[in-house]
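so i finally got all the pieces together for this one. its two components total, 669 residues if u count the protein bits. some of the lines might not be protein, just check the labels. i wanna see the whole assembly predicted at once instead of chain by chain like last time, that was a mess tbh
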Amino acid sequence: MSKQVADAAPARPAGTAQRGTADGGPGGRRRRPVTGTAHRRTSASVPVRKVSMWAQIKRDRSLLLMTVPVIVLLAVFAYVPMAGNIIAWQDYSPYVGIVDSPFVAWDNFERVFTNPLFLNAVKNTLLITAFQLVFFFPIPIALALLLNSVITPAIRTTIQSIVYLPHFFSWVIVVTVFQQIFGGASQLHRILAGHGVHFDLMTDPDTFLILITSQAVWKDAGWGIIIFLAALSTVDPALYEAAVVDGASRRRRTWHVTLPALRPVIILLLILRLGDALTVGFEQLILQRGAVGPGAAEVIDTYVYYQGVIAGDWSFAAAAGLVKGVVSMLLVLGANKLAHVFGEAGVYQRA
Amino acid sequence: MTVQLQRSATVAGPVRRVRRSKHRPIWEEQPTIAGYVGKTVALTLIVLAVLYPLYTIVLTSISTQATINAAGGLVTVPGEITFAAYRQILSGGIVTRATLVSIGITAVGTLLSTTVSVLCAYGLSRPNSFAHRPILFLLLATMFFGAGMIPTYLLVSHLGLIDSYWALILPTAVSAFNVLIVRNFFMGIDQAITDAARIDGAGEWRVLGQIVLPMSKAVTAVVALFYGVGYWNAFFNAMLYINDNSKWPLQLVLRSYVLQGVTLPGSGVGQVDVASGAVTGLPVKMAVVVMAIVPVLIVYPFVQRHFTKGVIFGAIKG
């Protein structure tokens, strides 16, 4: 697309157009301007330093061309589906199609918000997020501090490589590993049963929060330390030295030097986590929903999946998914705002 | 720095009970014995928590049924070794096919994703280039607002991609986060170098291919690993889009036959002997798990050392 645009542009601003001689056919250069807007550029009132739009496009045509594959992929697989959310306001049927399905205003959203199963899914989602915020989030920080105190480089990098590893295993593998070690067919289960304790961690809804949090810890707590270690490596050792001179103990150095260095990262990750508050390990949960049952394991994402893809109530599921998407976006933006208010960098800044 | 360290070693070395590490800064006090022991125990337990499950799974996959029966499940102490399970799943059958499917999808997907991401990242890395802000916004917006599963599913099915391998690649081909990691790295490259090449008459494609890319091997490797691991590990998109189980990737086979215990015709996976408990077929199941882990283990060591550089550069600056 940008190739066409570049060809259409006249080759008049010689200074800027000369740069990209390596590409672009000579035929394209000689062509007369075909679009009306190209004429505007030639007016004498344009300041000398200002490069016209067409000249810019021509100058940057290779760069623009490079972005085309990603733009096309995003347009098709991210932005078209975004527009496809319109079915949330329709009574959509795949046999009728999006164009001909009747609009029903906010009916689907009303159904979503009055549906006890959806509300249960929201409750479970928030419960999991809250639980993991307390029992997962601090673990990488503690682990990073622990590892940071290992001073022999060889030992440290070895341990790092080992604890990063499970992050790269799929949820199927993680759940399988847990099932083999803690599940109904495991030695552990048999030993417990031998002592009269009939308890299966993999299927008990009451301990489901503990189960999925320990799985998340096993898989991702190690990987989570990478960003904290990087932040710790930027701390000037002179700060510690000065603290020692001032008589600070190990504990006080951690409190007054190390943790303040981690603060921006911790806030950044809290923001990201807050933005993801409604997204709680979809693959992990859908793998175990069957074993534990929807009472404890149904979260918003799995609910959307079952209502839409399995039950075929497309519009209802799309409405539920859209609610989640919009609330998530507001959460990220809100959390970021909050970070700015408290004087932290946050995820993004206004340039 | 080195002078300091050496001095600390000579001054403090011989007198202390625990030999003073040459890596410990001079101002730092020696840890107490209790602290030292506590730390060692904690780190050992953490490392074991990661490694023990892998060890026992690999060992079980190469143990004979007799050894497994004696252990009553997963094997911890090595007994008789046999590779029968691997022979069984690799002798052509659904696991062999699924492995090939997974390898194919991962190879094609990683190549595609990495290529388009690097190109896009470079295209957006020149300050003040035309339209880079709106394009960047287009990219960033996808990080803040996802379209949702239902419209995406409907799109993929409208495009006729159900039961097509492309359905496992195209919808997840671009990760805005990965593009930003690469872009941030490119922007950190000294402009003087690329400008010199441009003055010498190199076009942008040449600057990217001959100057920028050779300087960015680490970040490219890390992003390729992220994409590759993503494709290799994905099972849900296959669950959504692939109904024909002869086209299933390995993770989905793993889920159905190992996790859910569905009997797999003709390959021994998931066959459960009721009389002796659910251990028959265990080595075969574990062999499938190992098959799903091994590629990650092979690639991991090569890319691992670049993590901090590649990831943090993108994450903190982005």
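The CA atoms of residues 140 and 176 of chain B lie 6 Å apart.
The radius of gyration of chain B is 26 Å.
anyway lmk what u think
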